[in-house]
Amino acid sequence: MEEPSVHRDRLSGLPLSLIHHILSFLQMWDVVSTTLLSKRWVDLWTTVPCLNFCETMQRDGDEDYGTDDEDNTTRTETSRMQNFVNRALILWNGVRILKFKIDIKSSYDSSLVCVSDVNAWTRFAVRNKVEELEIITTGECWAPHCLKSCSSLRKLSLVGCNLQFHGTPLWNRLKSLTIRQLFGSRISGDMINRILLGSPELEEFEVKLYDKYENLSIRSRSLKKKEDGEPFTI
């Protein structure tokens, strides 16, 4: 006679590294929600190496929001995101950060987000030796100076983020760099030249600028050609 089947939590039985890999595809709102799955998952989210703070503000139905209601809703959602990110970083207890993403452009009014918060979040990632960093804003925020000495970076993407520091960055491991200047964001041609000088292993460089820089000269032996075989151009 066959023994009755016993319910097993197959998901919790997976290796921690595999669970972390699965969670790396989720936004942090969803990652934190996994605490409801089982007792093992209560604190598991606090050790994930990939932190993606990007959430679309959702509204039920297609109601016609007035200007005041819409502004209030935006402020509420923005404040909610700030509180969520701050709380999540306080509780995070991982070993290192492989990927860190902050997106306050598509869903929120970044002018309502405190610049000091974005800087603090970025410094947190740098302190934990982040390897892939992505910051998306609408031109209101400046990248903190500590980013200059983040030698653990392998991939960096700055969209609408102001960037300016003295000297040459220590990005010896950086392989991929994306800089997209939005209206209102500022980055000088000299800054870009110094970035390239401090990134000797850079292979991929995507740059979109609104301003014209006469002193901008793209020179890097490590840059690869595009997939279509054309040489790298700006």
What's the assembly state of these chains?
single chain
Report the total helices. 5
Mean pLDDT: 77
The helical percent reads 25-40%
Structural class category? alpha/beta
> What is the succession of H and E elements?
HHEHEHEEEHE
Q: What is the general shape?
A: globular
> Quick one: biggest sheet?
6 strands, parallel
Radius of gyration: 21 Å
Which regions have little confidence, pLDDT < 50, spanning 5+ residues? 57-68, 225-234
From the N-terminal CA to the C-terminal CA, the straight-line distance is 73 Å
Strand order of the largest sheet: 1-2-3-4-5-6
Structural summary, described in words:
This protein has 234 residues and is an alpha/beta fold. The protein has helices at 16-23, 28-33, 67-91, 115-127, 189-197; strands at 50-53, 99-103, 132-136, 155-159, 176-180, 204-208. Helix 4 links the parallel strand 2 and strand 3. Residues 57-68 and 225-234 have low confidence and may be disordered. A six-stranded parallel beta sheet has the order 1-2-3-4-5-6. The longest helix has 25 residues, at 67-91.
